Amino acid sequence: MGSNDLPFIFNESTNDYQTVNIQGQISYKISDPKTLADVLDFTVTDSGVYKKNDIEKLNQRIINEAQTATSSFIHEIKLKDAIRSAKAIEDRILAGLTTSPAIGMLGIEILGANILGIQATPEMARALETETREKLQQEADQAIYERRNFAVEQERKIKETELNTEIAVEEKQKQIAEKKMESEVQKADNDRRLREMRLSADIAVENQRKELIEQKTANDKKEADTQGYILETTLTPYKSVDWKILTAINNNTDPKFNISLAFRELAENANKIGNLNISPELLDTLLSEKKEGR
Fold first, then answer.
1. Which tens digits make up the pLDDT trace of 119-132?
2. Rounded distance between C-alpha atoms, residue 111 and residue 130, angstroms
3. Inside any domain, residue 72
4. Quick check: is 168 in a domain?
5. pLDDT at 291 (0 to 100)
6. Closest by Cα among 93, 74, 77, 75 to 24
7. What is the pTM of this model?
8. Is residue 79 scored above 60 in pLDDT?
9. Reduced to 3 states, what is the DSSP secondary structure of residue 28?
10. How many domains does the chain have?
11. Is the sign of the CA dihedral 147, 149, 152, 156 positive or negative?
C-alpha cells in the first residue's frame, strides 16, 4: 500500500534515425487495491509467496504507457535535441500516465516521473564528442583569432592615434610657422614702410634744403647784383678821373704818401731824367719813419 519506485529503461529512434537510451524511474502507489485486485491476481500461498508474478505485469504496463507517451515526442526531434530534452520527456511521461485510461483501470496513482539519463549509442556518442570537440576547438581557435584580431585592431587604433597626434602636431607646427612667417612678412613690410617714410622725410628735407639753398643763392645773387649795381653806380663818376688825382684826394693829408707818389712818377719818367739828386737827410728821414712804423 506504500509508494513504489519503478526504474525503467527503453530505446527510441529520433527524427534523424538515431537510437537513444532513456533511463529513469516512476513513482506510484496503489490507491484502489480492490480495483487492482480485480485486474491482476495478487493471490499468495500460505507462506506469503505470490502465486503469479502479476506485480511484474503491473510494472511493465506502467513502463509501456510511459514509453508510449515518450515515443511520439522522440520521433519528432533530432538526436541532439533528444539528449537535451529530459525535462520535456518527464512532463510527457507524467501527463501520459495520469491521463491514460489503462493506468486509471489499475487503481494506482502516479506520484512523479524522473529522467535519469538520455544517451546515444557508443559510436554516436563518440561521434558527437568528436563533433563537439571539433566545434569547441573551432570556437577556441575563433576566440584566439578574435583575441589576436582585437589586439591587432587595438594596435592599429593606437598607431592611428599616434599618427593622428603627429599629424595634429605637424599641422600645429605648420600653423605656427605660417603665423611666424606672416609676422616676419608683416614686420618686413612695416620696416619697408618705415624706411620709405624716413626716405620720404629725408627727400622732403633735402628738397626743402635744396629750395632753401636755391633761394639763398638767388638771394645772394640778387644781393651781389645789388651791391655790384651800387658799386658800379658809385664808381661810374670816377671812371674818367685820373687815378693819381683820386689817390691824392684820398691821401692828401699824408706827406709821405705824396712823396712816394712823386718817387713813382720819377720812376715812370726815368728815361726823361738826366740826373736826380736826393739828399741823404731825406732818405734817412723816410727810412727812420718807416722803421718806427714797424
1. 888 888 888 788 77
2. 39
3. yes
4. no
5. 52
6. 93
7. 0.45
8. yes
9. strand
10. 2
11. negative
Question: All 3 cell numbers of residue 160?
Answer: 592611428
Q: Running DSSP on this structure, what letter comes out for residue 44? A: B
Whole-number pLDDT of residue 37: 83
**Residue 32: which domain range?**
3-120
Question: pLDDT of 228-242, one tens digit each?
Answer: 888 777 767 666 666
CA 195 to chain centre: 43
Q: Among residues 120, 150, 168, which one ends one of the domains? A: 120
Query: Quick check: is 215 in a domain?
Result: no
C-alpha cell at 27: 513513482
CA distance linking residue 202 with residue 194, whole number of Å: 12
The residue out of 100, 120, 140 marking a domain boundary is 120
Amino acid, single-letter form, for residue 256: K
- Return the C-alpha cell found at 94: 507524467
Amino acid at 154: Q
Residue type at 5 in one-letter notation: D
Under a CB-based contact definition with an 8 Å cutoff, are residues 14 and 79 in contact? yes
